[in-house]
């Protein structure tokens, strides 16, 4: 996988995680939702004629395993650190982390 593709996939993954964190689901529920979405995507690919349903699902599983093999770095603000800039305040992942931290304090 080239660097440009890796970067594009990383951007999409980041957006998916931000949206999922804002949903209010637990992290375990979010992981289950990603698995369900991967299977649904594979089934849609099969319906579009890319391959048989079983081949598309098998490829989706391989892609998920390949994703797990990637090195990932995550930074979540805990709400106690000073705000760095306006863009950080717009990040749903950071906002969710701040909201969860605040709810633990009350």
From TrEMBL:
Residues 81-90 have a biased composition (Basic and acidic residues). Residues 97-106 have a biased composition (Basic residues). It comes from the Bacteria. Residues 79-106 are annotated as: Disordered. This is Uncharacterized protein. It comes from Paraburkholderia ferrariae.
